[in-house]
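Retry 2 of 3 after timeout on previous attempt. Resubmitting structure tokens to design endpoint.
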């Protein structure tokens, strides 16, 4: 039965209501044309660009340390804090997987006691949750799940339980300790030490402490003793990625099996290509690594990428690929956004005559944003990207 037939068989009031309802339905169908140019059609929701925050710490030699927080989306300072320089310079900072907690290390200059600190804060409020005096480190590493923390510096490695910062293990060396890294799934960590020779150490631990530490001498494929520099573990836990080198001799990029520590891949690299920081892509297949020639080689600097699926080490970008005017590409710390589409770099780390936070489009290899951080007399140190979408947190 159509509307007209139904209208003829009902009362006048009901018929009027039906006629008006049919007219409204017709109008609704007319305006729901689906044409993008139709002025009355609803527009699709605009894509919301995530806004992550970048924590950047630097030192002003004469008086204080400064911790800046930048908006990655807008490139503006959203927060800053000043600290007494003689209480310690920032060396590293990192975050829990969800960004709820921030982990810092500082080391003091001069005669201040204690001369180093490790502490935990609430990222959103800035409140200090725990602090350990007398223990610091140049590198900070958080375990998967966020229950344990490793700090490593030139002569000490410390394993903490979180969030209390109770110390579970310490290792010291007069010869030097490199950065320590966790295995992503097993309660295991790796670090290097030089007690007269080069060794890679594998530590196993539980909630009460370290249960074993096994030392393995480091060699290249030719059998030469080599010392590790920077290292990281692949997200699937299969590979340990590191640079190694013969003292005053050749340098190599190595990939080791995390269980057997056998060499899966080895490539000879120039001295100037030693990697400073690692950042794994969310796809778990690629690791991006910064390198720079330092103050003596300002023309040398760039980012490498190693792909575990093709077993290849390649240049990602070098100083000749990015135009920044008088500033040279000297990348230090490196972070990737959770989507894996952007790369955030602290450029000019250390005593270099430049300094900025650079944002690169990973697929296009294009510089999309430059946040100026350098001022004369300032020295850049730690940088990390906070994995919170602040735009959606509002």
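Retry 2 succeeded. Sequence:
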């Amino acid at each position: 039965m159509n509307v007209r037939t139904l209208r003829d068989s009902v009362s006048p009031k009901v018929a009027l209501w039906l006629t008006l309802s049919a007219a409204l339905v017709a109008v609704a169908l007319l305006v729901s044309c689906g044409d993008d140019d139709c002025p009355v059609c609803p527009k699709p929701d605009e894509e919301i660009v995530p806004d992550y925050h970048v924590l950047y710490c630097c030192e002003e030699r004469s008086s204080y340390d400064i911790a800046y927080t930048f908006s990655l989306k807008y490139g503006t300072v959203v927060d800053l804090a000043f600290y007494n320089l003689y209480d310690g310079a920032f060396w590293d900072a990192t975050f829990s997987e969800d960004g709820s907690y921030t982990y810092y290390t500082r080391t003091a200059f001069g005669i201040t006691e204690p001369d180093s600190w490790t502490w935990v804060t609430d990222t959103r409020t800035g409140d200090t949750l725990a602090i350990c005096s007398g223990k610091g480190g140049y590198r900070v590493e958080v375990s998967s799940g966020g229950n344990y923390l490793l700090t490593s510096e030139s002569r000490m490695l410390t394993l903490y339980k979180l969030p209390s910062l109770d110390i579970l293990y310490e290792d010291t060396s007069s010869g030097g300790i490199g950065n320590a890294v966790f295995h992503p799934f097993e309660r295991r960590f790796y670090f290097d030490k030089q007690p007269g020779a080069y060794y890679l150490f594998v530590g196993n631990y539980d909630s009460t402490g370290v249960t074993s530490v096994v030392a393995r001498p480091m060699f290249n494929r030719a059998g030469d003793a080599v010392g590790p520099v920077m290292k990281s573990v692949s997200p699937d836990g299969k590979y340990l990625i590191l640079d190694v080198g013969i003292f005053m001799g050749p340098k190599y990029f190595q990939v080791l099996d995390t269980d057997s520590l056998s060499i899966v891949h080895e490539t000879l690299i120039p001295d100037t290509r030693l990697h400073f920081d690692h950042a794994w892509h969310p796809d778990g297949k690629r690791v991006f690594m910064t390198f720079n020639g330092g103050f003596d080689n300002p023309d040398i600097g760039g980012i490498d990428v190693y792909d575990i699926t093709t077993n290849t080490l390649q240049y990602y970008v070098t100083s000749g690929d990015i135009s920044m005017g008088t500033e040279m590409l000297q990348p230090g710390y490196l972070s990737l956004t959770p989507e894996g589409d952007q790369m955030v770099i602290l450029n000019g780390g250390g005593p270099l005559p430049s300094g900025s936070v650079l944002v690169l489009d990973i697929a296009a290899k294009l510089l999309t944003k430059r946040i100026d951080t350098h001022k004369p007399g300032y020295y850049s140190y730690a940088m990390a990207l906070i994995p919170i979408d602040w735009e959606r947190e509002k």
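Attempt log closed. The radius of gyration is 27 Å.
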